[in-house]
């Protein structure tokens, strides 16, 4: 599993997650929103959708001609785990200073 921050570090994946946070959207709608603003092809958008899906962040229903993408419920726990780890390190930062 890839760190949540790594998944979100790419602006296209971040934007896809941001759009899907408002609800499910058709693949064509997502592609139109991304290609117009980021200058990437539909194939490029598909690549980022596949990465998000392989990491368990998004899923879809429908068939190849009409796919509706949505965020999975696991996305929030993935983010929480990585944020909790950073918070843990932050709270114990004085233990690492000077070592």
TrEMBL record:
It comes from the Bacteria. The keyword DNA-binding applies. One of its GO terms (molecular function) is DNA binding. PANTHER family: TRANSCRIPTIONAL REGULATOR, ARSR FAMILY, TRANSCRIPTIONAL REPRESSOR SDPR. InterPro entries: ArsR-like_HTH, HTH_ArsR_DNA-bd_dom, HTH_MetalResp_TranReg, WH-like_DNA-bd_sf, WH_DNA-bd_sf. This is HTH arsR-type domain-containing protein. Pfam families: HTH_5. Residues 1-93 form the HTH arsR-type domain. Keywords: DNA-binding, Transcription, Transcription regulation. SMART domains: HTH_ARSR.
């Amino acid at each position: 599993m890839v760190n949540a921050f790594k998944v979100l570090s790419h602006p296209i994946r971040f934007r896809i997650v941001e759009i899907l946070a408002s609800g499910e959207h058709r693949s064509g709608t997502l592609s139109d929103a991304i290609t117009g603003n980021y200058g990437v092809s539909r194939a490029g958008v598909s690549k980022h959708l596949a990465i998000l899906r392989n990491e368990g962040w998004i899923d879809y229903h429908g068939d190849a001609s009409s796919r509706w993408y949505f965020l999975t419920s696991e996305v929030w726990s993935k983010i929480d785990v990585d944020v909790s780890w950073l918070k843990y390190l932050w709270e114990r930062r004085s233990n690492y200073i000077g070592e």
